[in-house]
Specification:
globular, mainly alpha, 404 residues, 85% helix
Length: 404
C-alpha cells in the first residue's frame, strides 16, 4: 500500500472516530441544553471560532508543506511556529476580554464567549500539523480520537441539565490538554517567547499569510452565516440552523482531512514528479466521490428522519436548509482536490482570489436573504458561494497546472 493511501486511511479513521464521538456529544448537548440554550452556545461558538483563524495565520498549512520537504527540521519549525502562535493567543485573548466586557451582549453570552475563547490557547499549542508534514497520520488519529472521547466523557459526567451550559466550554478546553502535552514532548518542542527568531517568522509569514487569508474568506461563506442569522433571527432558529450546519460541516471536515493527507505528497512531487502529482490529485477525487455517494444520498433522502432520531422532533425545521446545503457539498467535493493542488504548487494567491470573490458573494446574499428568509436564505447563499468557487478553481487549475 502506498503512503498516500495509508495517509487517507489514517485521516479518514481519525475523522470518523472523532466524528462519531462529536455527533454523540452534539446530540447529547442539544437534548440536554434544549433549543434556546443550545442556540446561545452555538452563537457564542460561531463568534469565537471566527477569531480562531487570527491565531493560526496559515502557519499550520505552511508547516505541513515545508516539513514535508525538510523533515529533519521539524522540531525547529514546531518550536518557532508554536511559540509565535502562543504570543498571538495571549494578545488576542486579552483584547477579546476587553471588547467582550464592553459589549452590549447578554451576560450569559459574554461568559460563554470568554470561556470558549480559552480554546485560543489550544489552537496555538496544537501540533498535529507537524505529524501531518511527517506523514505520521496515525498521530492525528490519536489526537482527534482521544480529545473527542474525553470531551464526550466529561460532558456526560458533568452536564446534566440546561443550567450546566457554562460548563461546556471549560470541558472542551481541559479535555484538549493531555494530547497537547504529549505531542509537544514527542516533537522536542522548545518554548521561545523571548528568543524567537523574527527573521524566520517573517519568512514563514510571507507565504502563510496568503494561506491564512484563504481560510479567513472561506469562513465567511462557511460559518459566518450563523453569526449573521443570530443578529436577525431568534436563538431557536439559530439552534435549528446549527444542526444543519453541523451535519454539513462534518462532511466538509472529512474532505478537509483528505486534503491534509494529500498535501504533503503533492508538495514534494509537484516540481520533480508531475505524474505523481497527478496521481495524488486523481486519488483525492476518487476518495471525495466515494464520500459523496456514501453520505450525500442518505442525508438528502432521510434528512427529517436523521434529525428526528438524533436531536429530536424539536429540530425538524432544520431539514430543508440541510438539503439545500448538501447539494452545495457536491460542489465542494470537486473543488478541494484542485484547490489543494494549487496550494501545493505555491499558487495559493490564485486560491485567495477565488476565496475573496466567494466571500463577497456570500456576504451580499446573506445580508440580502437572511432578514427575509432566515435560515433558508443562509442555505441558498452557501450554495451560490460554492458554485462560484468551483467554477473559478477549475478554470485556474486548467490554465496553471493542467496546461503543463
Amino acid at each position: 500500500m502506498e503512503k498516500i493511501e495509508r495517509n487517507f486511511i489514517w485521516l479518514t479513521a481519525a475523522n470518523v472516530t472523532s466524528g462519531l464521538f462529536t455527533v454523540i456529544l452534539f446530540i447529547y448537548l442539544a437534548r440536554t441544553l434544549e433549543a434556546e440554550n443550545f442556540g446561545y452556545l452555538s452563537y457564542a461558538g460561531a463568534i469565537v471560532f471566527y477569531i480562531f483563524n487570527f491565531i493560526d495565520l496559515g502557519l499550520s498549512t505552511y508547516g505541513i508543506r515545508e516539513i514535508a520537504k525538510d523533515r529533519p527540521e521539524a522540531s525547529e519549525y514546531v518550536s518557532n511556529i508554536v511559540s509565535f502562535k502562543l504570543i498571538l493567543a495571549v494578545s488576542l485573548f486579552t483584547g477579546f476580554v476587553i471588547i467582550c466586557s464592553l459589549s452590549h451582549q447578554l451576560l450569559l453570552v459574554k461568559i460563554l464567549m470568554l470561556e470558549t475563547a480559552l480554546m485560543f490557547f489550544v489552537s496555538a499549542l496544537a501540533s498535529e500539523w507537524a505529524f501531518q508534514g511527517l506523514e505520521k497520520m496515525y498521530m492525528v488519529f490519536v489526537s482527534l480520537g482521544l480529545t473527542s472521547f474525553l470531551q464526550l466523557l466529561l460532558s456526560v459526567l458533568i452536564v446534566k441539565n440546561p443550567g450546566d451550559l457554562l460548563k461546556v466550554p471549560l470541558i472542551n478546553f481541559f479535555a484538549s490538554i493531555p494530547v497537547i502535552v504529549f505531542f509537544l514532548s514527542r516533537l522536542k518542542f522548545r518554548l521561545r517567547l523571548f528568543t524567537l527568531d523574527i527573521k524566520k517568522i517573517r519568512v514563514y509569514l510571507s507565504s502563510s499569510i496568503v494561506i491564512w487569508s484563504i481560510s479567513i474568506f472561506a469562513q465567511v461563506y462557511n460559518g459566518l452565516d450563523i453569526a449573521i442569522l443570530g443578529f436577525f433571527r431568534p436563538p431557536q432558529e439559530v439552534g435549528y440552523f446549527s444542526v444543519a450546519r453541523r451535519i454539513v460541516g462534518g462532511v466538509t471536515l472529512l474532505m478537509t482531512f483528505l486534503a491534509s493527507a494529500v498535501l504533503p505528497h503533492l508538495s514534494s512531487t509537484f516540481k520533480d514528479d508531475m505524474p505523481g502529482f497527478r496521481r495524488g490529485t486523481r486519488k483525492f477525487l476518487k476518495m471525495s466521490g466515494m464520500i459523496l455517494v456514501l453520505i450525500f444520498v442518505p442525508v438528502i433522502l432521510f434528512s427529517s428522519q436523521i434529525i428526528s432520531l438524533t436531536v429530536g422532533n424539536e429540530y425538524l425545521p432544520a431539514s430543508m436548509p440541510l438539503k439545500i446545503m448538501m447539494i452545495a457539498i457536491v460542489l465542494v467535493t470537486f473543488n478541494l482536490p484542485y484547490s489543494t493542488g494549487l496550494i501545493a504548487a505555491r499558487l495559493e494567491k490564485e486560491v485567495l482570489k477565488q476565496a475573496c470573490a466567494s466571500a463577497a458573494l456570500s456576504l451580499f446574499l446573506n445580508f440580502l436573504l437572511i432578514p427575509r428568509y432566515g435560515m433558508i436564505g443562509a442555505s441558498v447563499s452557501f450554495f451560490f458561494a460554492e458554485l462560484l468557487a468551483l467554477i473559478w478553481i477549475i478554470t485556474v487549475y486548467n490554465n496553471k497546472i493542467r496546461a503543463r
